[in-house]
Amino acid sequence: MKALAPLALALLCALQAMPARADDSLYTQLGGKPALEAVVDGLLQRATQDARIKDFFKETNLKFLRTQLVDQLCAVTGGPCRYEGETMKNAHAAMGLNLAHFNALVEDLQDALDAAGVPFATQGRLLALLAPMHRDIVTR
Ligand code: HEM
């Protein structure tokens, strides 16, 4: 039994030296910050050209919205960001959005995720996080 002690010690040392378990957050699965930025750019490009919803973005500072969206998506997917913007209720209250508007934006997001090469299952995880937000965003 005693003869195994050095072996056990060596094993423990080896385990200590190993990097922490790979991060399995959705943020990492999506591809981190560069991937989120590409997805948000793709989403805004599509939404601002989508006849069903583009008018909502006419007066919007798109650069600011991009920053807010990247921070929010990074934070909700477990990334190293803080979202300090408006609540979803406050941000969308004056727009009078209905479910068709919401679904149109989600379609644009899915197209942007496809274009960024995000696998279907990972897309599903992200959409599952965002879908419940319709309760605060859709007001009519
Ligand atoms: C899950 C769905 C959605 C998410 C996660 C989301 C997220 C956000 C965020 C983070 C902001 C910035 C808030 C701030 O000012 O700090 C914002 C603003 C905005 N959202 Fe959404 N949104 C969603 C749905 C929609 C939909 C369906 C529309 C319209 C069809 C829309 C149109 C806008 C516009 C126009 C602004 C900017 C308002 C302004 O100019 O101040 N959003 N959204």
UniProtKB/TrEMBL annotation:
**Entries under Pfam families matching the protein:** Bac_globin
Report keywords, A-Z.
Heme, Iron, Metal-binding, Oxygen transport, Signal, Transport
Query: Does the record carry Metal-binding as a key word?
Result: yes
Under SUPFAM superfamilies, the record lists:
Globin-like
Alphabetized InterPro entries for the sequence: Globin-like_sf, Globin/Proto, Hemoglobin_trunc, Hemoglobin_trunc_I
What's the domain of life for this entry?
Bacteria
Which cofactors does this protein require?
Answer: heme
Where does the signal peptide begin and end?
1-22
What does the similarity note say? Belongs to the truncated hemoglobin family. Group I subfamily.
Record-given protein name: Group 1 truncated hemoglobin
Origin organism is Roseateles flavus
